[in-house]
């Protein structure tokens, strides 16, 4: 009996020692080994600090820039950078261009070399999307988070919805949504022909409306409610991201966790009811396939018919997740592009006049169609320059899946990699001494000339996993800006405060108070 007890006690002791070693290894031995390994290869950065790494400094800097009321000088690129990506900007200035930061006990290296960035994007199976914070996964898990065969299958089935020919059919819906917004603006304009307005909420409603109309077509009203919920979910997730994630904390019955779960349930139920209705319509032959959901369901049904096999095609749950992905990725990004375009055109009146002149010349007496819109060269140059200085997604990350060589570096499995879009877009070594200035001329002969064929401009990512919605976003933004320029001129109101803020993407912290004048 004693022998059995002893064996049990020894086994328990071994398990306890092994667990303790695993924890010590994870939070101390491994980070210190990696620190030495990475620093020996030339990466600079803070030494690893037990458990939290750089997270305390990171959250403190983010909170500081959020808590202070600050009107940032719009012409001072460094001030903008140090406000939006405070910690990365500080690290770049302190440690140089290849640096390590510590996300808790996990090291993250920042890469700014365009050739290495290209390599990372091309080898997308080796450099996978970072495992998202579980709070973000509650917003959506689909194309943005999938890997390998699953990602390939979904991308192939969804690609047809974003084909240029399909996008052309969406122009009337975009115009309709813009007309509604501009109609409201016209009613607000007083008898002297002008009004002061915070345009930010209007642009958010506009892009929400455009996406709901083109995505859900006839089910537009239900789609709007889903949007409201996903916006709330995004704000809650963004708040959660500012603090260090303690494994398992999302299961605690906190107020935020409960609300996030309730939203998730409601969103799933709403989208499922839209899809069920649509499938019924498909079966009775009442459905048309002009909206996104229709095109994706059609593409899915075709795939299932061809292969008669459930491993092909997407399940209804997967389609629901993809719908959430489009809401999440498609709305705030496009409203951000439109907003910063309007802000920079308010600051640079000469470019506003030039853009309006082009719009009035090129589109005179012509209906709005994709081919005509493609002739708007100045508007294109302005969009590129806005995407360079105010990229709606200021940075992306990847994860090293297995020990791998990247250029002259050996990177260990599990390492995170940051590709700091905004830091690269502002870099004087890469763009020249006017890198931090607004100068759309740099794009006058296209992107490859402006970038000298280097990968230093990637507001939509790059390579096989680039943004699937890029053409969609540029088309809707173009239609919106054209219609605004045709009817209004705009400038800053005295109450405008320039405070770009990173809330998962780049947004104006205090809105965008402008004076609109009817033309
Ligand atoms: C100005 C607007 C937009 C910007 C700046 C933008 C930016 C980006 C970026 C940087 C990525 C790459 C992320 C990475 O590599 O980790 C991406 C991916 C993605 N975007 Fe966009 N996006 C915009 C609009 C849209 C729209 C309108 C949609 C859909 C309606 C959309 C859907 C997606 C999806 C699904 C992915 C993941 C693609 C994949 O991994 O295969 N985006 N976007």
What this model shows, in words?
With 519 residues, the protein is α+β, with helices and mostly antiparallel strands. Helices cover 57% and strands 10% of the residues. The chain has helices at residues 2-40, 55-67, 77-84, 86-95, 114-122, 134-137, 148-158, 164-168, 171-188, 199-216, 220-241, 255-283, 292-307, 316-347, 349-362, 370-373, 377-389, 421-425, 428-431, 447-451, 470-487; strands at residues 44-45, 99-103, 106-110, 127-129, 194-198, 396-400, 404-406, 409-411, 416-419, 488-492, 500-503, 505-508, 513-518. The strands form 4 sheets. The protein has a 6-stranded mixed beta sheet with strand order 1-2-3-9-6-4, sandwiched between helices. It has a 3-stranded antiparallel beta sheet with strand order 5-13-10. It has a two-stranded antiparallel ribbon with strand order 7-8. A hairpin with a 2-residue loop joins β2 and β3 (106-110). α9 packs antiparallel against α10 (199-216) and α9 (171-188) runs parallel beside α21. The radius of gyration is 25 Å and the shape is globular. It binds protoporphyrin IX containing FE. Protoporphyrin IX containing FE binds at residues 129, 143-144, 155, 325-326, 329-330, 333-334, 337, 392-393, 396, 459-461, 465, 467-469, 472-473.
